[in-house]
Amino acid sequence: MASKGNDSRIDYVELDVTDIAASKAFYGGAFGWTFTDYGPEYCEFSDGRLTGGFTTLGAVRTGGPLVIIYADTIEDAQRRVESAGGKIVKPIFTFPGGRRFHFADPDGYELAVWSAQ
Question: pLDDT per residue over 48-94, tens digit each?
Fold first, then answer.
């Protein structure tokens, strides 16, 4: 099968938020993400590999796809999430291939962090 390049791969994640500054503080503090502002209602984030956006143009809603973030050391990631104001909704657990935990960000979005260790 020929390589498809970036076709059909996850390219961007967009989250509706109530406060862009609070979202930047949370994700910057917990994971070291960087940000590019595009006016008062939109901000792009980058984790160094994937980009996405925060916007105040839509309604905040919980649920949807589970976004999973990788961590070299899961305990350190959990401490950073908690320190930045995240709420742990599923403590660290094992699964085939590694360990992970789930957390809620300040707007109630549930995300997960996993590690192979």
Answer: 999 999 999 988 887 777 898 999 999 999 999 999 999 999 999 99
Instruction: Say how far apart CA 100 and CA 117 lie, in whole Å.
Output: 10
CATH class of 12-115: alpha beta
Which two structure tokens, joined as six digits, stand for 101? Answer: 């935990």
Taking the whole predicted model, whether its pTM rises above 0.70 is answered as: yes
What's the CA angle centered on 25, arms 24 and 27, to 5 degrees?
65
User: Residue 3, SS3?
Assistant: coil
User: What is the C-alpha separation between 15 and 31, in angstroms, rounded?
Assistant: 16
Parallel/antiparallel/unpaired status of strands 110-115 and 98-104: antiparallel
- Residue 117 vs residues 1, 73, 93, 95: alpha-carbon distances, Å: 32, 7, 11, 11
Domain map (residue ranges) of the chain: 12-115
- CA angle, corner 112, sides to 70 and 76, nearest 5? 60
